[in-house]
Design brief:
The complex is a heterotrimer of chains A (299), B (436) and C (321).
Chain A (H helix, E strand, L loop, with lengths): L1 H32 L6 H21 L7 H28 L4 H23 L8 H6 L1 E4 L2 E4 H23 L1 H11 L1 H6 L4 H23 L9 H16 L4 H21 L7 H12 L14
Antiparallel strand pairs in A: 1-2
Chain B lengths: L6 H16 L13 E7 L6 H20 L8 E7 L3 H13 L4 E5 L4 H14 L3 E2 L17 E2 L5 H15 L5 E5 L4 H17 L4 E6 L9 H10 L3 E4 L3 H11 L4 H4 L1 E4 L16 E3 L9 H4 L2 H14 L5 H23 L7 H8 L3 E3 L4 E4 L5 E2 L2 E7 L8 E8 L1 H4 L7 H6 L5 H4 L8
Parallel strand pairs in B: 1-2, 1-3, 3-4, 4-5, 6-7, 6-8, 8-9, 9-10
Antiparallel strand pairs in B: 10-14, 11-12, 12-13, 14-15
Chain C lengths: L2 H21 L4 H22 L8 H16 L6 H23 L4 H21 L1 H4 L5 E2 L12 H28 L1 H18 L4 H27 L1 E2 L6 H14 L5 H17 L7 H15 L3 H6 L16
Antiparallel strand pairs in C: 1-2
Helix pairs in contact in C: 1-7, 2-7, 2-9, 2-10, 2-11, 3-4, 3-5, 3-9, 4-9, 7-8, 8-9, 10-11
Classes of the chains: A mainly alpha (299), B alpha/beta (436), C mainly alpha (321).
Chain lengths: 299, 436, 321
């Protein structure tokens, strides 16, 4: 029995790692800006497209294939640097204090624009860039062969979680973010430049989403529709945790990942339903999520 | 072609529609139009485009070839392509929009089984001759007696019964099988057919896992773990398009192809683009491979294949050949319809009448249309091998199962028919390797 | 603009729509679908008046559509009138049940919970292949009308005018509802919920009524779409479809009953002209239109013709939350 549980855990964690990055980005943006960014999934797919394009370029121009690894990170940084500040300064900034209906509508408009922008820039066919996966080889765990890249991804997700925690608790910028989350008015009165904090938090959120997309490319193809699909999955994780809960998002990602794996192993007819079913059950019992409350603004 | 929707075309369509209303009911023969308009439905975006675009390219090339040779009945063919990725509601709207132009006389629709099922009643309502150029679901002609939908390709029953037969023949020791198919009619039908056929011809085979991931799934990692954990002797799959590419790329490094005999029903489509290992059972749902002995013996097929390779830099795949065949089928029918009306341009109904019951010599074999408008087509299956002078994977140990041996009779439940098969039936089929 | 002029304009619009199948026959089908979706957008608009945004309302559109499919295929009910009544009844009951839970929440949580429920239903519709036909959806046969059988083209023509008549009739009812104390209270929830409660009005009850009405409207849109298209699909419940309903409502304007229909019909006209030129940019056009309306025309298209002061917009901010 214990033997049979091992693959469940590995697969569950691998699944969780894939959704963790994008979900934690969504929840971080919400906790600081109090905005549910409906376009968040698009940053994931743009990150994936950019990473895959750079990866394919590295191979086709005969560069060292190991460069594919830093390329994943560079792709995410590029997307965040180019899109984060620009979108926050223009569209998102305009919605502050305007009511959630307007905020959701503006980001939905942004989502529609970004979806077609990707079709125009990256084309409409599926692309693959699986070099990093091939370079790392495989390991056997519990009688099943896993990609070392999948295991690496689990490690990266844990590192990101720890890194985020350290950043928020122990750096000056992170503490400033916490202060703004705690009380925006008082922070401003104390002379904190909230404009900068908002831009920084939004860009960090875009980076995490794009990183999630970039890190997913070695083990999956990229095609139109990825953004819309990821958006709801990230949302499910964030909602289960409670919007604004960073550590909670990690726990929720594991719950959703394991639920999906359990469904595929035992009730395959419900695989795609599993994340949403878990979300519904959680929200029926705790409408503000496992770790969230109406008032709570902790991150 | 999609830019045809300019204001002038708009106005012309409007006038034509008014004119059509004026003579409604009076389906009288007309003068030849200046262009023979057709609608072609395929996937040109999204994960399914990996399969749909070779079809579209095949259509573009074949239409050019037809038009260079004088067109259909002397009239050049003009195609409007519709992307099936927009979903059934959009596809139905586009079909209706195109059908409003009375000069649009034939539709080639559709690639996806769901869209074929959704469009069939619309075709009947409008009276539009519709060639199901690719979709396979046997449900299409099962419930209704369709007058305007024709499928010169055959259906899922012979296709997947053939794979079950081939697998049991080359690998008689298989006891545990797993199935991973896309989650819609095509995948579920194929799963049913494989299970029913195996239950009849190899009752000792047990199904140990059955997965139906959503069409357009990009990551199959958990599914691969699940399949691996089930330890099947054989894995059967009719994944296609980008799903098939994703699955093969992800499953190969994880040892699935070493662990089990893999059966890829649409494997022919990735022979050139992926590195399949040796010994995978692969096929093409019918006989539509450019490289079968039959196809290589047909000068027109060779000409088409060479022209395709030159224009697109890759070999055609079986959806390309199916599309080309569908266009040739259309051309033959329309030209026969013209002959039947003594040279007057035929109506939609007359074109449909000419399509009925045809025996059609395609680029890759023969299609015999039955009373129900479904065709009897041979099934070609083989094993992959990388020993080839093509520069990519090819097929060996091929077999060409005669279509009539696999096609259930009209009427009656095809799954029930499968259960009447016996292990002896296998002996009556040609042996793998008999067609090389 | 004086009310009389406004009514004249609206009457003119209805007459123009009535003449459309004769002038532009090829638009009849897409316009039927556009009018059907207009009902669902009107439902969303009701909630927007209370400052509540639902990004899951396509759920009720899908419920109405699937109810029609199940009734005609499973229960053998083929009459259009019965299909409409049955589907609307089912979506109304579901709306009341779901709404009883939903309207306890405000703001982001309301939006989120709606999204959650709609995604569960979407994935169930898509996965339960044996029951719902999975991602292939289900065919809906051509209904009869008062026992009379029609072929599809006759039925389509009749359905178009049925939809138009329903717009006028249902539009009038919804208009009356908005003018009733319950309707006025709806706007009050938006502007000041606490004050409303002090007046002894239960916000929960006000919102539950609005939620149920909006679900009924979306269900009506669903059944009309189902019989017009002749096919139902899980995509009807997908979250982007919900987003498009909100977009349609805001584009048309939530200030009056005519707004969402205006938005829906307007979008269909733009679509007809964009098809062929900008297939890869249709979503982008929608997105840009949405942003432009929010920035420059917060009262929507309806705001252009109605009295400015009377027209409501999504931009109004609730004060005490």
């Amino acid at each position: 029995m214990l033997f049979a549980i091992v693959p469940l855990i590995v697969d569950g964690l691998a699944n969780a790692a894939l959704i963790f990055f994008v979900a934690v980005g969504l929840t971080l943006v919400f906790s600081v800006l109090r905005i549910l960014n409906v376009a968040h999934g698009s940053f994931y797919s743009i990150g994936a497209y950019v990473a895959a394009s750079i990866g394919l370029w590295i191979i086709s121009s005969g560069l060292n294939p190991w460069l594919s690894f830093p390329a994943l990170l560079i792709a995410a940084a590029l997307v965040a640097a180019l899109m984060g500040p620009l979108i926050e300064r223009t569209l998102v900034h305009w919605t502050y204090g305007k009511g959630e209906a307007v905020q959701i509508l503006v980001t939905f408009g942004l989502f529609l624009i970004l979806e077609d922008l990707q079709r125009i820039v990256f084309g409409v066919r599926s692309i693959y860039a699986d070099t990093p996966m091939a370079l790392l080889g495989v390991s056997e765990i519990g009688g099943i062969i896993y990609l070392n890249y999948q295991l690496l991804l689990i490690g990266l997700a844990v590192l990101t979680l720890i890194g985020l925690r350290l950043f928020i608790r122990h750096t000056r910028q992170g503490k400033l973010i916490s202060a703004v989350v705690e009380d925006r008015e008082v922070s401003e009165a104390m002379g904190i430049n909230t404009r900068r904090i908002f831009m920084m938090a939004f860009t960090l959120g875009v980076f995490l989403a794009a990183l999630g997309g970039a890190l997913a490319t070695p083990t999956s193809g990229v095609a139109p529709g990825l953004g819309a699909e990821t958006m709801v999955l990230a949302f499910a994780v964030a909602a289960i945790a409670g919007l604004g809960q960073v550590e909670g998002a990690a726990v929720a990602a594991v719950i959703v990942g394991v639920a999906r794996v359990l469904a595929i192993y035992y009730v395959p007819a419900l695989d795609a339903v599993a994340p949403y079913l878990v979300m519904l059950v959680v929200l029926l019992i705790w409408p503000y999520g496992l770790f969230g409350t109406t008032q709570s603004r902790r991150i | 072609m999609q830019h045809s929707f300019d204001r002038r075309a708009f106005a012309r369509t409007g006038l034509a529609a008014v004119a059509a209303l004026a003579i409604a009911g009076g389906a009288k023969a007309q003068d030849a139009p200046s262009e023979f308009n057709i609608g072609i439905f395929t996937f040109s975006s999204g994960p399914a485009a990996a399969y749909g675009m070779p079809g579209r390219q095949g259509a573009e090339l074949m239409i050019d070839m037809i038009n260079e040779a004088g067109g259909v009945g002397g009239v050049p063919v003009r195609a409007t392509f519709v992307d099936e990725a927009q979903g059934a509601e959009g596809v139905i709207s586009e079909y209706r929009r195109l059908a409003n132009d009375p000069d649009t006389q034939v539709m080639l629709a559709a690639l996806s089984s769901s869209n074929c099922l959704a469009l069939a009643p619309v075709a009947e309502q409008i009276g539009m001759p519709t060639i199901s150029w690719n979709c396979d679901t046997h449900q299409l002609f099962l419930e209704d007696d369709l007058q305007f939908t024709f499928r010169p390709n055959g259906n899922t029953v012979p296709e997947f019964a053939a794979f079950a037969a081939y697998m049991v023949t080359v690998n008689p020791d298989v006891r545990r099988i797993a199935i991973i198919n896309p989650d819609y009619a095509f995948g579920h039908d194929a799963g049913e057919i494989v299970k029913a056929t195996l239950a009849a011809i190899a009752p000792e085979v047990e199904v140990v896992a059955e997965l139906y991931p959503r069409l357009g799934t990009s990551s199959f990692q958990t599914e691969i773990s699940r399949l691996s954990a089930a330890r099947p002797d054989a894995i059967f799959s009719n994944l296609w398009g980008a799903d098939l590419e994703n699955f093969v790329r992800q499953a190969q490094p994880r040892g699935l192809f070493n662990q089990s005999q893999v059966v890829l029903a649409l494997g022919e489509t990735v022979l050139e683009s992926l590195n399949l290992p040796d010994g995978v059972i692969a096929g093409m749902l019918g006989d539509g491979w450019w490289n079968t002995p039959t196809a290589r013996a047909n000068p027109m097929t060779v000409e088409f294949t060479d022209a395709y390779l030159e224009r697109y830099g890759e070999h055609p795949v079986f959806p390309t050949m199916k599309m080309a065949n569908a266009l040739l089928f259309m051309q033959e029918a329309v030209e026969d319809a013209i002959a039947a009306t003594d040279g007057a341009w035929p109506t939609r109904a007359q074109i449909a009448a000419a399509m009925e019951g045809r025996t059609f010599n395609s680029l890759t074999g023969t299609a015999v249309l039955r009373e129900d408008n479904d065709a009897v087509v041979d099934q070609v299956i083989g094993l992959t091998t990388n020993e080839s002078d093509l520069g990519f994977t090819t097929l060996t140990s091929m077999v060409r199962y005669p279509g009539e041996m696999l096609m259930p009779p009209i009427g009656g439940d095809p799954i029930e028919w499968l259960s009447t098969l016996t292990p002896d039936w296998l002996d009556s089929l040609p042996a793998p390797g008999s067609y090389n | 603009m004086r009310p009389a002029t406004l009514y004249l304009l609206l009457a003119g619009g209805v007459l123009a729509m009535a003449a459309l199948p004769i002038l532009l026959p090829w638009k009849q089908f897409v316009m039927t679908v556009a009018m059907a979706k207009g009902f669902a957008a009107l439902g969303v608009a009701l909630l927007l008046r209370a400052g509540m945004i639902s990004i899951g309302h396509a759920l009720f559109l899908a419920l109405g559509a699937y109810a029609a499919a199940f009734m005609s295929r499973g229960a053998g009910i083929t009459d259009l009138g019965l299909l409409i009544l049955g589907s609307v009844a089912i979506s109304t009951v579901c709306g009341a049940l779901v709404g009883a839970y939903m309207v306890r929440y405000r703001a982001i949580f309301f939006a989120m919970l709606n999204l959650a429920v709609s995604m569960v239903v979407f994935s169930l519709l898509a996965k339960l292949y044996r029951v719902t036909g999975g991602t292939d959806g289900m065919r809906v046969p051509v209904p009869t009308i008062f026992g009379m059988e029609y072929d599809k083209s006759q039925f389509d023509a009749i359905l178009y005018y049925v939809a138009l008549v329903l717009i006028v009739a249902v539009g009038f009812l919804v208009h009356r509802y908005l003018k009733s104390p319950l309707g006025h209270a709806l706007a009050a929830v938006h502007s000041n919920e606490v004050r409303l409660e002090y007046l002894g009005v239960s916000a929960w009850r006000v919102l539950l009524v609005a939620y149920t009405v909006s679900a009924a409207l979306a269900g009506l849109g669903g059944v009309l779409t189902a019989v017009a298209v002749g096919h139902v699909l899980p995509e009807y419940a997908y979250w982007t479809e919900s987003g498009h309903l909100v977009l349609t409502a805001v584009l048309g304007g939530i200030g009056g009953v005519a707004g969402p229909f205006l938005g829906s019909i307007f979008l269909e006209f733009v679509h007809s002209f964009a098809v062929g030129y900008a297939d890869d940019a249709w979503n982008m056009i929608n997105g840009i239109a949405l942003l432009l309306v929010i920035f420059f025309l917060p009262q929507g298209l309806y705001g252009l013709i109605a009295r400015r002061r009377a027209a409501k917009s999504v931009m109004e901010r609730d004060e005490d939350k």
